[in-house]
Amino acid sequence: MTWMETERAALVDTFRDADPDADTLCEGWTVRHLLAHLVLREHRPVRNAVELAARRPPGRELFLGSVVERARTPAGYAALLQRFAGGMSAANPVSWPGDGAHLLEYVIHHEDVRRGGDEPAEARVLPPDEVRAIWARLAPFAKLGYRRSPVGVVLAVPGGPRAVVRRAADAVVLTGDPVELALHASGRRTAADVEVMGRPKTVERFLDHFAGDPDQQPGQGRARSGDFSPRR
After folding, report:
1. Distances in Å between the alpha carbon of 193 and those of 69, 130, 214, 221, 228?
2. CA neighbor of 142 nearest in space, from 127, 156, 122
3. Whose CA is closest to 167, among 193, 139, 194, 188?
4. Spatial CB neighbours of 4, under 8 Å, sequence gap ≥ 6
5. Which residues pair with residue 155 across a beta bridge?
6. Helices in 148-195 by DSSP H: which ranges?
7. Engineering a disulfide at 202: which of 13, 107, 198, 222 sits with its beta carbon 3.0 to 4.6 angstroms away?
8. CA distances from 199 to 106, 148, 171 (A)
9. Distance set, CA 131 to CA 49, 161, 183 (Å)
10. Nearest CA-CA partner of 81 in 71, 91, 73
11. Residue 11: C-alpha distances to residues 32, 75, 83, 85, 198 (Å)
12. Domains of the chain from N-terminus onward
């Protein structure tokens, strides 16, 4: 079993136990919206791409709303969850990239559900091999997340590996578990347990830059409309 499928199974359990109307870290989206998003991206990728390109405010999406409405009843939500739990067939091109396209998606959205609302859950303890798999895919993703940073950015795991994701003369070092670093890179900054270290002025430039970036929304600790990528 791939790590994406391990994470999918854990996410299914979380979706099953969660209140479908509860808030998530994806601003404007409930648990029901997030589940609908995952099903749409896997089984209707063209429609999902149109949604991402349109960048409509939460609740005004072109296609997502109809999926959400069909899942308003307990039976409808259960059916939507069952579709996500069933995964993708080998004939579905969306499945072909495997962990490379889906592991971070599931991990980040899993934390969107767990850490949303008024009583966020504590960080999970994941299998070491899964943590290593997350780290292996983190640097390319973080390069996108920090591509506009006015200073260099280095990711560091305490007592573990480091990765330069943006080069510059002055740099900050972001230290945390790979899951926390993934959340930080995706714009869920106040939900992520990450330490920002560096020269005071360099740290200030880094924090000030992202505090004023509407696509990152660091002050709210939220991502835009449920897509884990820093921009939609």
Report:
1. 35, 19, 21, 11, 17
2. 156
3. 139
4. 98, 99, 102, 103, 106
5. 163, 174
6. 178-185
7. 198
8. 34, 19, 8
9. 29, 12, 14
10. 71
11. 13, 19, 13, 9, 35
12. 3-114 (no CATH), 128-224 (3.30.1050)
Would you state the structure tokens that stand for residue 68, as one six-digit string? Answer: 């959400």
Task: Supply angle C-alpha 207, 174, 34, rounded to 5.
Answer: 80
* pLDDT tens digits, one per residue of 14-47: 999 999 999 999 989 999 999 999 999 999 888 8
- Tell me the chain's radius of gyration from C-alpha atoms: 17
Q: In what order do the strands lie in the sheet with 152-156?
A: 162-166, 152-156, 171-175, 195-197
- Segment 185-214, tens digit of pLDDT: 999 999 999 999 999 999 999 999 988 554
Q: What is the DSSP string of 23-88?
A: B-SEET-BHHHHHHHHHHHHH-HHHHHHHHHHTPPTT--SSHHHHHHHTSSHHHHHHHHHHHHT--
